[in-house]
Amino acid sequence: MNLRGIVAVSGRPGLFKLVGQNKAGYVLESLDAQKVKIIANISTTKLASLEDITVYGQEDDLKLVDVLSNISSSKTNVPDAKSDAAVLRSFFEEVAPTHDTEKVYTSDMKKIVTWYHLLKDLPLFSEEAAGTEEQDAVKAEEKVVEKKPKASPKPSNAKAPSKTAQPAKKVNMTSKKGV
């Protein structure tokens, strides 16, 4: 799953794709059907990359990417974000069994389920992440440089350059002061 460039913006619902940056801020495009483009001010807007988000765990924090992949491979039906809190809690026990039940609130679960429903139909959801071993092996094979043939000698009828290179003249840069 490749979530590079997908961000959550504080104070705005939904997810956005980072399109670019200009002097006013970040240029973002919404991932919903409307494809609204906005410019988020650099100094006042907080962006959170989905790649970097973690969920509180009992021992170690869980990466959001792993939780979303568990949701996609889940045998049970993914509940709606507007489902009852008990339904969401039982679903999260299945897809993220080591999450911290005291620190992960129902609102967090609703947000993750909403994000899953936004992302599940996008092609980037089924892509591999940029740092996987398979892609690193492919890139290594692409970097193999083929040997180039040696340059052929100049043909005998080629003209020599008209000017010959002359050494540069030395210039004395010290100033003479009157004594």
Automatic annotation (TrEMBL):
Transmembrane segments: none annotated. Residues 53-119 form the DUF6852 domain. Residues 130-179 are annotated as: Disordered. Residues 153-163 have a biased composition (Low complexity). InterPro entries: BVU_3817-like_C_sf, BVU_3817_N_sf, DUF5606, DUF6852. Residues 3-50 form the DUF5606 domain. It comes from the Bacteria. Residues 136-149 have a biased composition (Basic and acidic residues). It holds the Pfam family DUF5606. This is Uncharacterized protein. It comes from Pedobacter nutrimenti.
